[in-house]
Amino acid sequence: MKLALAQIDVRLGDIEGICSRIGDQAVLASSQGAQLLCCPTPMFCGMQPTSLIEYPNYLHDLLRCLSALAERLEDADISCLVPAIVPIGPSPFLETFLVREGRVVPLRSLIGVRHGNLDVGTWESPVFDIDGARVAVVLELERDLPQLPRGCDVAVYLPLGGFNAQNEQTSAVAAVADGYFSEAAARAGVWLAYMAPVGAYDDVVYTGGSFVMDEAGRVVAASPCFEEDLLVQEVVRGSVVPAIDTHELPSFQREEWVWEALRLHLRDTVEANGYPRIAMALEGDLPSSLLAVLAVDAVGSRNVIGVAFERSEVFTPQQEAAECERMERVRQLAANLGIRLVERAQGDVSRWMDRDVPARDAGRLRAGIDALYLSDVAHELDACIVTALTKTDAAIAPDACVRAGAPFALVAPFGDVYLTYLEFLARYRSRTSAAIPAGLISLASIRQSMDRILFDAADVAGRDPIARERIAQIFARLEPAQIDGALEAHVDRNQTLEDIPLSAISPKAVSLLMLMTRRGEQRRRSLPMTPFVSERSFSERVWPATLGWSDLGRGGEDPLSLEGFVAAEQERLEELGEEHGERVRGEILGLLGDLLGLSPDQQQELMSEEGQRRMRESAMRFESQLRQMMESAGEDEMGGAGPAAPPSGGAVHHYPFFSQN
């Protein structure tokens, strides 16, 4: 049996276009002898369909187009495995449709109906026959592979999640060289077909890299990463087939994969929104310069427009020299990249506002005016705006993101990447071509950008000059990597104040970073789209917008837990039971003492632990003596011939005295 993996990049939700593309791929795969075409998961509505699947006509169009695809391929000797998210009641459900012989078969729903439990919890792997081979559909490797029924020949794995730079497995074939997937396939004893999606689907980006692995865990065929491909491979169980050497497989390099994922997402997002060009503000700093390089890689230099603003607040020779150097970097970058550069001069803010503007407000107002200039240029040249804000900006200074035109931007490619990581991305990209001025790829440049972010954050968090100065003092001794490290631990890994390493050095700084992050929740929700490339993006980490609580630490106390409170209450109830038992025993012994005429001292002695012990010993001696006496009486009645035999062969039962009473 030959199977084909259609690693295609399609427009999200273009149902008719997607089904037409699947049909074309099926015809092409059939011409190469394939009997089964496998399609990627997120094509129709992505992996975050929200309320779209509740809309009745969406499901109608999906099923209608799949039916048309089945009619088109009815006479072709090929079947198609097409996954899609559909509604099961109010919940989304990943269905796997098998299009074959003019029919559309919902495999997972069919299994649920047969078992009488059609719901979102249905997880049994569908298994079907293709040209004498048993094919299983797997959604989670670690869970599903060991549960496959005996006799399966090949497992088609349909990954759900997108690329995550902290999880190498999401890079598909690039993770095989580091030991991923091979052991699972060999342990299950089946061929593994990894159907990796490629392209951007809203916030999620997929890197491609589909592959086919034999039952020994060797890659026998693979698709390239970050581009479309049709992979056709014959599945031959029980025989050795040529395999790709491990050193020939792509190797996962984090900076390369992040850069290519961001490029792919930017290209697909711009095209999906119908824009032919990209416009951005060029500040002469590392973030905006690196963004310009990314835009050129995504859509080409002819389709990128840089907008630079000459600053008017130049009062000293040092400021004038710095401004000239900044503008020279902007012009050099534009020349290196071959992009169009539009320069605008900043006007007098007081004239624009028709009032005297304080120095503290001038920067904020000028940023807003620059954003309007940028929006006008983009409108004139039919370009979409992209912004260079980073995850560090979004964390602690989202109110100041107007600086790079964020209110009008379509996408923020670095919105899920911390500022300090841009230096590593820039060094990786500079190995291809030295477009970015060398002076910008340095720790000093990162520190300058971090100072700007902290200044903006302090300006919003502390409107009192004394408070702003205090905030500046708290952060003055910290390196940019320490600040980003604390934010990454808090945002991406959900660590508390005590767990963050920086808290041992400056707990006030960590507490302040958490406070700023919490206060920016509402503003972050209006920021542009951001591709997900980290463990947890801000779109996934959502807190209440009007939350008044912030993590200020435990003050040295041990962490409280619900389990601890449950255990304490159980212990309290057990103690109450013991106290109740002691009280009941005391009342009974007191009543017994009154009946026997015991004095208070004798009753107290009787209720003591020693008295209780003596009473138990006396009762045991009395019971033993009584039993011996009863046995002796029985022997006397039998004439000394020993105990009487039990009637009809039954056994003699001796009951303790107190148990009989």
Overview of this protein structure:
This protein is α/β, with parallel strands linked by helices. It folds into three domains: 2-252, Carbon-nitrogen hydrolase (Nitrilase/N-carbamoyl-D-aminoacid amidohydrolase), CATH 3.60.110.10; 259-524, Rossmann fold, CATH 3.40.50; 587-629 and 655-661, no CATH class. The chain is built from 21 helices and 18 strands. The chain has helices spanning 15-31, 56-72, 107-115, 141-144, 182-188, 254-272, 286-299, 317-337, 349-353, 359-380, 391-396, 421-430, 443-461, 465-476, 480-491, 507-519, 521-524, 562-596, 600-607, 609-637, 657-660, and strands spanning 2-7, 36-38, 79-88, 91-100, 103-106, 127-130, 133-138, 154-157, 191-194, 198-201, 204-207, 211-213, 219-222, 229-234, 277-281, 304-310, 340-345, 383-385. A six-stranded mixed beta sheet has the order 5-4-3-2-1-14. A six-stranded mixed beta sheet has the order 6-7-8-9-12-13, with helices on one face. β2 (36-38), α2 and β3 (79-88) form a beta-alpha-beta unit. α6 crosses α12. The chain is flat. Residues 641-650 and 654-661 have low confidence and may be disordered.
